[in-house]
Amino acid sequence: MTPSPAPQASFRDLFTPKLVTVLREGYGWRDLRTDAVAGLTVAIVALPLSMAIAIASGATPDKGLITAIVGGFLISALGGSRFQIGGPAGAFIPLVASTIAVHGYDGLVIATFMAGIMLVAVGFLRLGTYIKYIPYPVTVGFTAGIAVIIFVSQVRDLLGLRLSGPEPPEMLHKLPVLWQALPTVNPVAVAIAALAIGGILALKRWRPAVPGMLVMVALGAAATALFALPVETIGSRFGTLPTGIGFNGLPGLSLARVRELIVPAVAFAMLGGIESLLSAVVADGMTGRRHRSNCELVAQGVANIASALFGGLPVTGTIARTATNVRAGARGPVAGMAHAVFLFVFLALAGGLMSYVPLAALAGVLAIVAWNMAEKREFAMLLRASAGDALVLLAAFLLTVFVDLTAGIGVGIVLGSLLFMHRMAEAMAVDSKVRLLDEDVADSADGHGRFDPARSADRRIVTYRLSGAFFFGAAATVASVFDRIGDPPAVFILDMTDVPFLDTTGAYTLESFVHKLERAGTAVVITGLRDGGRQTLAHFGIAEPRVTLAASAEDAMRAAEARLAVT
């Protein structure tokens, strides 16, 4: 009996925010207290990180806080994950920095707004599930590349270098500029960065419950203020931070500007979708829950639109802060909303004090982020896995570092797809149930020769079995085997029981072969066709009565014998 198809999820099922689901399940004061504590924990982690990411991106530190406040609140309130924490992400640093350098901050705002619209559209079109098809070597490659870019972008502040001009965003131009500035190293900045990195690592090992990043940044700020240390601070480079959030709108929006910014907007949308869904998957793995991917993308889109309108940066789900939220015992999306509220309170009450934060301490924070982001063990494993995986990995990594993230992901996906198709084509097998000419076996790369009627059990019937996906990558292999059949038999049986997929190229190959057999007077029996394959072949005219379609190999043999009895 054919099983009934699974019921399709309704629009309401797919796009109901998890906040609504949690409230329907019952949400009390105890849950609120637990989520408030988790939100405060995440806010303490997000405070220095948001400022550091914004500075590394070429923006002012308050832009990072605005992104975490506005975008983080909306992602939690509207998203399809119970535990997702939104905000500025390290993965965006190279894209944001290059966009600001080329198009200015106003251009970044418009690109972020456009990316939000794209993400909303992708979510409502239910395309979120396709993001998971990005090959793993591509993900590891561009993530490692981003880690390298983040670290190199912090060399200036880690060493306290004085540059003669603006720091170029491109890696090939950035490295010579940093090299020329090495004689201007500031020992005090180096000491602050080293103490920040060492303190964060020490606290993580011996006191993991203590927010090491915030503690070391606060200590650096206190030391800088008390001893008037000769290092750059947030205040000396950016001035006093604002203590509120205002609506900015879209500056200079025009059709020409939209055309100019379409490429970075697509890059923001693509990376934001990938990063947010990876983060949601991590949260699912830690909690046993399941997120709604398309609902999550819609929330990401709305958050990016709002972040742009309020003067923020591109926003996405952040893996480290989401994991912190889960470990802090969050019960649901209210924790993420509380994290945004706490950040707003910090900005309103302590915005002036943040001016004393040394940039070297924030650079130390991002150095830790870059080290943790680089999936070192996975990178080494993929290098040893196979030549094909290593090629995809290195292409994504090197192009991300030396060209841009879009090229790294795009080329990586193309190479990964080609590698997959090659492997699927290699897995395609054609087996005959007749003996083959020995000399042709030796000459045949696939190990199959011409049919020899004199050596078969029945000289009038030939049976061939296909195994594997019969798609355009394998069509040439199958066609070459078919072409090696010598004198046509009276009946040709094609067993496709082990063919899980048949595309139009495979169907065209079969149609050409069936047409060749028809001209020779050979009857064709096909068995084991699945419903999808049956429909594809029917489009090419391969259906009864032109061929005989049998349900099993035994039925196919009986049909062949019946054909022989008629002739």
UniProtKB/TrEMBL annotation:
Entry's Gene Ontology BP terms: transmembrane transport
A cellular-component GO term for this protein: membrane
Every STAS domain range: 461-560
Location, primary (coarse class): membrane
InterPro entries: SLC26A/SulP_dom, SLC26A/SulP_fam, STAS_dom, STAS_dom_sf
Transmembrane portions of the chain: 36-57, 64-85, 105-127, 134-155, 177-203, 210-231, 261-283, 341-371, 391-420
UniProt cross-references to CDD domains, sorted A to Z: STAS_SulP_like_sulfate_transporter
PROSITE patterns: STAS
Record key words, sorted: Membrane, Transmembrane, Transmembrane helix
UniProt keyword Transcription regulation present: no
Compartments where found: Membrane
Topology relative to the membrane: Multi-pass membrane protein
Alphabetical list of Gene3D superfamilies matching this protein: STAS domain
Record's protein name: Sodium-independent anion transporter
